[in-house]
Amino acid sequence: MEQKDAIKKGKYPAKNHCARVAEHIAKNLSKSNQQIPSTSVIYLEGQKTILQEDNDEPQPFRQRRSFFYLSGCALPDCHLTYNISTSTLTLFIPPLDPDSVIWSGLPLLPKDALEQYDIDECLTTKDLPAHLSWISKQHPAPTLYIETETSTSLSSILADLHTESSILHPVIDECRVVKDPYEIALIRHANDISTRAHTAVLRAIPTAKNEQDLEATFIASCISSGAKEQAYSGIFGSGENAATLHYQKNDQVSDPPIYVGDSPPVPRARQNLLVDAGAEWSCYCSDVTRTMPLSGTFSAESRAIYSLVQEMQDAAFALLRAGVSWESLHLRAHEVAISGLLKLGILRNGSPEELLKERISVAFFPHGLGHYLGLDTHDTGGNPDHGDQDGMFRYLRIRGEVPEGSVVTVEPGVYFCRFIVEPYLKDERTRGFIDEGVLERFWEVGGVRIEDDVLVTKDGYENLTTAPKGIEEMERIIKGSE
């Protein structure tokens, strides 16, 4: 509660973000011996209200993230300008429309916006053309930094300005990587809400009839905590559905019914439930994955794989600190996976070094270790290389060193996906490394992923995710022991 109250007391630091972006523009220009013009202005247009096709209802609104980053404003149909030389941030909001008030009530007024946002002045969008015309008359000739080509209604005014559209978007993406304390507080709060929702799912498992029951439990918990938006479409995959990395159907029936409390527990045909879901709070995301035993007790095979994935995550955490190469963490997770799969007998006929060289672990851990997190679930600035010919690194969403103050997900996993694994069993070069007899016992495990959101610090990290993830803790919650 204290954390939430602290967030409410302050304003989203929009002007600090504008200043940071302006500074990075100047740095980028200096690399080519250019200087930022003294009369330069940043201009951004927010997301517009868009009606559904053949309908008078609007599409669900989601503010453009770059606009929110420089304004803190999540209202539709807004604009902003930031005068770099005077550090003046001006927000333009829609004017009061009496007809709209009848249906929707009073909108935010300029005087209210000045109180709510970290801005210097607030005008209405009716004032925008005159404002841009005034900018165009400044001397020396100003440069207007824009993200993309903007509204045609403003094209005649913008024609009188020197616009630059190649630098602003990548600069904002770069600036968003390092979070300030206010942003970290928002991500932390989103994680607190997600923790309650994941715990609610654990408690609901004994009575749930299908995956969508558990999805509904998660979303209801988030909404009751004040988070009406999800950071992304949640994954609620039971049994072998958990082997699909971004499973979305969430509609499979759980059979046979579970009887938690029996001794021994009556297992379901589907052993586990993988839940990858996170709340959004004030446009900032959480991204949390837990894998839960549907019977209330992990099977021997599921427990072994879950423990292995925990080891993979712990090994990555041990290396995580500012300046570390993300590739080195990902590689370490694969080394631990290979060691564990050898001990279980799933892998064979090769040393850990040989199996790593052959990239056999990619059959069971095909995705990257994690990604940046912030205004987007897969946040900006990771510089992925999807053309990488090395399958172990192709899907990494972060390349290079991770800076202090960034927030990353650490989400190793081990999956038994027939579509991915079976080609390795048919390939003469790789089939000898996998024991099909042992593997047969693990198909029903589906997939296990554990994902936490962590703040990178100078000497280590801080885990912002507190959702239950210990084997015994989750089993106790499902059985109603706590």
Detailed description of the structure:
The chain is 35% helix and 13% strand. The protein is α+β, with helices and mostly antiparallel strands and 482 residues long. It has a six-stranded mixed β-sheet, covered by helices on one side.
Structure in a nutshell:
By secondary structure, the chain is of the alpha+beta class. 35% of the residues lie in helices and 13% in strands. Helix 7 links the parallel strand 5 and strand 6.
Which helices and strands appear, and what pairs or packs with what?
Elements: H1 2-9, H2 14-30, E1 41-45, H3 65-71, E2 79-83, E3 88-93, H4 98-104, H5 110-116, E4 121-124, H6 128-136, E5 143-145, H7 155-158, E6 162-164, H8 168-175, H9 181-204, H10 211-224, E7 235-238, E8 272-277, E9 280-281, E10 284-285, E11 288-293, H11 300-319, H12 326-343, H13 352-357, E12 407-410, E13 413-415, H14 418-426, H15 436-439, E14 447-449, E15 452-456, E16 461-463, H16 471-478
Helix pairs in contact: 2-3, 2-8, 9-10, 11-12
